[in-house]
Amino acid sequence: MSIGLLILLIVVGFLLISIEISVVPGITFAGIAGIVLLVITIILAYYNFGYSMGNMVLIGSSVISFALFFIGYKFFNFRGIALTKTLSDSKVEPSHSEINIKVGDIGIAYGDIKPQGNAIVNNRTIVVRSKGEFISDNVPVIVVEVTDIHVIVKPRIIT
Question: Are both 95 and 148 inside the same structural domain?
Answer without folding.
Answer: yes
